[in-house]
Fold each of these.
Amino acid sequence: MTDLSTDFTRTRAAFHLPSGVTYLDGNSLGPMPVAARDRVAAMMQDEWAQMLIRGWNEAGWYAQPRVTGDRIARLIGAGDGQVVMGDTLSIKVFQAVSAARALRPGRRVILSDSGNFPSDLYVVQGLARAIDSDLRVVEPEAVAEAIDDDLAVLMLTEVDYRTGRRHDMAALTAAAHDAGALTVWDLAHSAGAVDVDLLGADADFAVGCTYKYLNGGPGAPAFIWTHPRHADAAQPILQGWMGHAAPFAFQPDYEPAGGVERMRVGTPPVIALAALDAALDVWDHVAMPDLRARSIELTEAFIAQVEASCPDLTLNSPRDPARRGSQVSFRHPQAYAVMQALIAQGVIGDFRAPDVLRFGFAPLYNTAEDVSRAVGIMARILREGSWDRQEYHARAAVT
């Protein structure tokens, strides 16, 4: 598919985008693909309703985690048979880190950074207590110098959820390997947003979610990738029924399936996978270099326009696009209230504590017009001070 040319007018038409709304929060939850409603309805009517339990074989439900994993593999620089779907991202982080740690039995240190998504750190804090390991957390800029001969696993989110800062996956993986350690990469803010190349970077394990840039819907299942050199040696602590070599033999003892199949845990979320399958159709017409170029174009324009018209905001993302994912954040002392005022005016981004306005740019559906409209409305809100209303300061449960 190297000769593929991406038509972004066509990809935008594949999504339901409410009238009057500029949506810049696809890095948190992607919009609904137009095809998803019918795809899920057909699955429920033609498969679940008519086939009942026969759907596991006749409709291919049981194989869905592998089939869908192959569709995602192309987007992250992986090969067929190397990615499998299921469960939540936290569970996949637990599996990947525990498997990587077990492959380095003489070492105790798991290294991460303070820009990692907190839930990843929560998972590994608990895991480290259970397996007698030490979790060390350093500033993002200090990761390379913190890699030493005590390191077992380097666990990083490639694109920082708050700032958009992008780690150099290939360089840090090489440094970890030189020290005898393995790597686990969280691609939550990378998959479908930037040009990921897991095999090219020689990474060891990777995980990611599908409800952000991949547009699989709220609660869409996560994925996990294992480099082929580890696929038949990895032994995650969490061993589930679907990861057994013969699950329907109902043997009392666990025997891992071959390859990445052993990373399956529970019953696949079939309805959610149907929605995700519809979302992935659009990617059949997308060249990842085109996507990355469009992302840079949009984020560069946004930064330039904000800095020209919103002097009260301070850039909180790397200025160099090569060091940035597909999101941009700015700081403001009253960022939460400013974001609520923006949302009320039809510009949807989100807030991250303590003072960050965060905007995600999804090239599949965001345009230069979205950039200009969002900046124009934000400049007016800041200039007029219309964000300073009581209702905009009231914190909701989800920010």
Amino acid sequence: MAESTLSSWALLVWDELSARGLDADRIFREAGLDPSSLRNTVARYSIQQMQTLWQWAHANTGDDFGVCAGKRWSPMTFHALGLAWLASASLGEALYRMTRYGKFVNDGVCYELSSEGLQYRFSIRAVDTLGERSPPSVDASIVALLKMIRMLLGENYSPIEVQCPHPPNAASLLLEQQVRCPITFGGDAVEVLFHRPDIEKVLLTGNTELSLANEQIVVQHLSDLAQSDLTTQVELEITKQMPSGQLKEDNIARALNLSRRSMQRHLADEGTSFAQLLETKRRRLAETYLRNGALAISEIAYLLGYSEQANFTRAFKRWFGESPTQFRQMPDNAEKR
């Protein structure tokens, strides 16, 4: 299936073209994009057609177009993923959601969050070659990402450094004014470097119920989008069946009309396994629930599909090196309650 992006991302381009007095309808059609898709919040455009659109903008409007388009980002640009982002309990949790579900917005790029001692690095890298993307599309991605981050950490926040893969151009000063931190030009990815405390700080605006509800909307859309992506379908079934107490590999396979052995084989082809997906989901939800503080530990164990609280406690100690009670009593986690 051709790589694609949400049409709502293209809406930023439409609005900026219109603001400059240009015929957005004609420009979209010449790029092969149906403007009527902009009214469908989960419609998609091909990456190739979007790059044609960005290249036209670059050639006909000036280097500042991407920065100006990126400033138009709002949470609804990313549909339910934007709302899940706003309700995240920390910037780290929000960025993790992008690494897991960013392909809902754009399946032509991959997202990665990595820990580097006292710092974290978030990368956006094209599946093919980021250097082939037009500079305005890269600039829009950087500006939109910084706007997303500041919605969580405050308008005055600035990261340590931003890496921009294209060479400096006439819009570089404007881009620097937006990110308000040093920019390194070159490389093969958009990267943002953060101080660890900024990533891990518990946010008072976090709402576990809302973030998880919107996350499941994203998962459902991903499942509909890529029926061949068994990993997404298994993740969705794990979430559905987790509180039932019958979270077994056979039950998941049966729900997907597969034999256990067939599911195992297909997941292996996608580089994962049922056990890995279940472990990752439980670990992340456990951390989210404990940081939120609204649920008792016994309730969390039930929601994660553990028949006994002791089994959950043993798993949590394996993940984090301490018990759920000790984790919840840490000052950074306790201040939310």
Amino acid sequence: MPDLLTWLKERAKDDLLLWADQLSAANRFKVSIREVEGTALKNGLLPARYQRNRNMLNLDDQLKLYNSKVAVIGCGGLGGYIIEELARLGVGTIVAVDPDVFEEHNMNRQLLATPDFLGIKKVAAAARRVDRVNPAVELLPVGLAFGLDNGTRILENCHVAVDALDSIAVRLELAEICQQLSIPLVHGAIAGWYGFLMTQFPGERTLQKFFAHNSQESGLEKHLGNPSFTPAVVASLEVAEVCKVLLNQGTPTRRRCLSIDLYDMEFVEIEC
């Protein structure tokens, strides 16, 4: 009887492995889809779901993403889109952190908010969504409020943390813990037509400087509203930053903040 790798190689089309064959392999060899995907990527086979990535990401890049662990702090407007895009990109492990349940006012903009998920924990909905979108991705749900008391444990062994919070105070706590653990932090925020993006590496304090004179508990979104499109735009920019950090490619928004104005369609860099 052939082993898993031999069986996969026999069925690959050139170097592409179809979803049907991944599923058959998991059933035949009594292993998870995640294990099938890992075996494929480590041995030069690309799951066909990622074939449109390959003109910008090579197979080694895809394997790096598979072996990466990213924490998403907040699973609402920004977080839902971030989790979705990370899963579709092929990031292997996602830690999703949020204490809340879905309410009706979330449904205008939050990707994971649907009528059948009202009253359901956001992290539980995220786990169900990722299982449907990409079963090779492991989502670890943490249904707790992030803070100084548990942040170190939550971010353990993560390669990048992603800020999808709506509290400036908690955002600054996240930045401090990332500093302590030497974890890069991708920050995003939204308010009405507007958004902000920055990436902070260990040893930098860009986020702390940016919010140094702002002690509000909540961000401007409480006053300017939250439409459907702003979180989708900013979340996508955050995922692009995560991808660059994980693969050590491109130019992240270090020591600067990208100010996003979708009303007048202006993107302005602010030095920090």
Amino acid sequence: MRVGFIGAGNMGGAILRGCLASGQVLPTEVCVCGRSPEKLEALCQELGVQSCGSIRELVESSQVIMLGVKPNMFPEVLPQVAEAYSSDKVLVSMAAGITMASIGEGVSQSAKIIRVMPNTPAAVGEAMTSVSRNPQVNDEEFAEILELFQSIGRAEEVKEELIHCVIGVSGSSPAYTYMYIDALAEAAVKNGMEKEQALVFAAQSVLGAAKMVLETGVDPVQLRINVCSPGGTTIEAVERLQHLGFAEVVQSGFQAAVDKSRKMSR
């Protein structure tokens, strides 16, 4: 399929790089347009993809159109998409706060629209992506897009009304995880370890713990209990974190992201 990226910044660029790295999309099948000619030229040279001079040109030449612009750009971008849109094309939006209904209003009520909520680990093939569709998207078309996002990590279909929850639990959560890794590394530095080595120890431990959850099927609570020997170091740390409200702090951050997403959608 020919895929067009309208915007290839942090998220769009991560998805583009992930798709190319997986081999799911070939550079010759990709067209990109953006607001900065200098950045666009550099990206196209780096990845071997084509640049499009306009949104209209991109839409006309693409089967799948990735809307990778910021939410505040949609009022400007959607009318240009509508000029060249035809019913055989699928629009894929990754913007927070922009519903499929509002995209349909801006392009066509009969438009085929898929809304995704990926995260930036797409750039290293470890994204978690929710994929939602409107009734105009048939099963074959949806399967193609789902497979595309499964090539850059994990992807699952969810109802659009769950998108706010997805933002809190996966869309925004890499940022919280980076904070945790950095805090661990800083603590290690204070105890004598070099920062570069401390980051490796912290990040690999997070990666390993995540794989234990995904691959063993054991509940995280039980996995935590399994590590905590009575009177040992781990239970000492866990009890201190529980006393300080570790779970409540994390859930509060999650809820802030969810509440902001709901506010943006109004």
